[in-house]
Batch of 2 targets.
Target 1
Amino acid sequence: MKKIIVVGSGILGASAAYHLSRSDAEVTLIDAIHPGRATDAAAGIICPWLSQRRNQAWYRLAKAGARYYAELTEQLHAEGEKHTGYARVGALSLHTDPVKIEQMRERAEKRREDAPEIGEIQVLGESQVRELFPLLNEGYLAVRVSGAARVDGRALRDAMVSAARRNGAKVIEGEAALNVAEGRVTGVQVNGERLDADEVVLCAGAWSGELLRPLGLDFQVTYQKGQILHLGMRGQPDSGAWPVVIPPTDQYLLAFDDAKMVVGATHENGVELADVRVTAGGMHEVLEKGLALAPGLADGELEEVRVGFRPFTPGFLPVIGRVPGWEGLITANGLGASGLTMGPFLGSQLAKLALGLETNLPLEDYAVEKALGEK
Ligand SMILES: Cc1cc2nc3c(=O)[nH]c(=O)nc-3n(C[C@H](O)[C@H](O)[C@H](O)COP(=O)(O)OP(=O)(O)OC[C@H]3O[C@@H](n4cnc5c(N)ncnc54)[C@H](O)[C@@H]3O)c2cc1C
């Protein structure tokens, strides 16, 4: 029986471990519970189709990731996981300029040609927008896409870990270091114990550079800090059905069940990985932009601020595959600002790589070499 260790239990590692646990491999999942885990802080928008990014390789992954949710959540439900945190509530992409709205509609129509999961596409006037999301400011028009969704990253990760456990995976809390011998990764060291494996699947997000340095590898993963605010709104009992809001700025707004609103986030570069502070400047930015978008949030109760590090690889394009020069080591990283969208799908592909199966997408565009600097 193949022994496989997954290091890191964010959305990516949890998905890899879950998919591996459905095979006959012996699976161990290890997580250090670092403060600043991206999956813990993520907003949860699943709506890649309206993005203006021109990189086709990125779009292919994001599209495949969004599509995969239907299959994954159905499978998890069938395995007894009731709370996947996923809800297809649709999205409102806002603008005040009717010309921009028309361009957005055209883009969405074009993308629907090979992504029918986008669902219905509708242009909404001001009053229709405020009917669907009553806290929003006046003056916004929107393109509504019905197939967009929101997901609670913590809930989905926990559902996948719980299903993996039920399927026999072992889950360990601790900081793993890679064990190597003669060009091969042989397993990990964790909590003073040596665990051997045929394959190690590294999903350590922003912390992966540190883990690979002892192997003489310059793995170029950078990160961007995000602070995101959770508010409790009184008197909005049906908020769980409200659509995700994507304004023309770099911010967003989501409503969850029980009148919870999530507003954010900051995009901070050049900070220390240990800097998980909630800052005055960060909150000023989120509140200033958030209240201009939705003045109705002013009455919200400050419940929590979450902080996470979005991991990026060069060109803002994720990498996935075997790590060159080392046997027994597979990784994926660089999920950036769309990791909840792509993570479950990429995790399933990591599992296929570790089991020697064919992947659903050709992965050459995402070769790990692209994130390795000169030694
Ligand atoms: C504020 C914010 C908002 C976001 N909003 C969205 C969104 O709306 N939609 C979307 O699609 N994406 C969103 N994202 C992006 C998404 O959250 C990330 O891309 C994704 O969660 C990255 O997942 P990951 O598993 O690679 O990393 P992480 O979730 O960071 O997981 C890495 C894990 O590795 C563990 N680890 C590290 N080193 C070790 C070690 N040595 N031993 C053991 N364990 C280790 C860590 O503890 C951690 O649990 C957002 C991110 C942020 C921060």
Target 2
Amino acid sequence: MIFQLLTLTYEYKLKPTKEQTQEIERTLGVCRKVWNHALRERKDWLNSRKCLVDACSIQSEYIISSDTPYPNYAKQCKTLTDAKEQYAELTTVNAQVLQQVLRRLETAFVDMQRKKMGFPRFKNHYRMRSFVFPQMLKNCWQGSRHIKLPQLGLVKVIKSRDIPEGFEIKQARIVRKASGYFIMLSLQCDVNVPDVLAHGQPLGIDIGLEQFLATSDGEMVARPRFFKTLQCKLRLLQRRLKHKVKGSNNRRKLNQKVARVNQRISDTRKDWHFKLAHHLCDFAGMIFVEDINFKAWAKGMFRLHTLDAAFGQFFSILEWVCWKRGVYFGKVDKDYTSQQCPQCGTHTGKKYLSDRVHSCPECKYTTHRDVAAALVIRNRGSSGLGTSLGEIACGGDAAGGTRRDKKKGGTASVHSAV
Ligand SMILES: [Zn+2]
């Protein structure tokens, strides 16, 4: 049996007083200065190393001596401590909070190299939206209406749900959103929780551009309409933003509107993802999806579609819902799922986006192309577990309809075997 340490994030709405709101904003401001200063330091150092040998520096020159070490996390932490003597403002904010800012910058640079993410950016008021208290008191909940935070004291909070038993609060992130301030608590379970074992009816899921997804049971889930309406609204507002003078009151108001619509889109999407995940778990004991690198995907031809569909988020929500409901969740090799016949395994060659139907030249099995891909995913998942669905591997001579019934018999035996 496999065990894992569980971490969760619970989000609650904060109701800070006027003074506390000012304090949060002030903290965000200091964090922003630290971020921008530390980023400048790293940028200057990097720029000073890439001067071309045969080019003279007519325009500018970075004067950083060659033996100055790179300003890494440890070094910047020390600089921060030293800077406190000079800048009193730095001492007014919790020291750990500021260290977390430097840590985040370090992570941003590591991500850039390892995950090919973009170069970290300087942050303006709108881009610095959150900060972290890396340590929380054991009994930070004071009753059901208040939470005790370092620096801010007792803050009123809407406790929309209880912390699950056995979980401890590890960190707290304060986030400014368009609809107010929120606190995100990272919870950790100290007891190990057993992983779900593979059992029951397998279900393959293929995500796509035309439909949001198709299942191996033949169900198609369309992309919900309401996103389109909200996206249109957003685009309209953003177009208007261009005509407003920078720094003007009207621009600030419009910016707030844009942020509110953005938040509504992400809230509605998340809600829909959760409902869909629960719906899928209603019918399955095991769920298999393709193992896709969404970062790379989003850069390719699927760019616009994936951004609005947010498949990556859906997969992680699905994984979580599966775990909660005791459904096994597995990822399978993504290659050629749309080019294989789910019935006989024949390689049917590349399909164009316009080919909507899978029709096998060998066994004559015909179905919707996305359902065929979902079936291939399901078969791969099941066989990866060593519970291959007997008759799927053998060559086919029967017609599609009877095949499907036989397959259901096959899965039943899988169920009893585990
Ligand atoms: Zn076939």
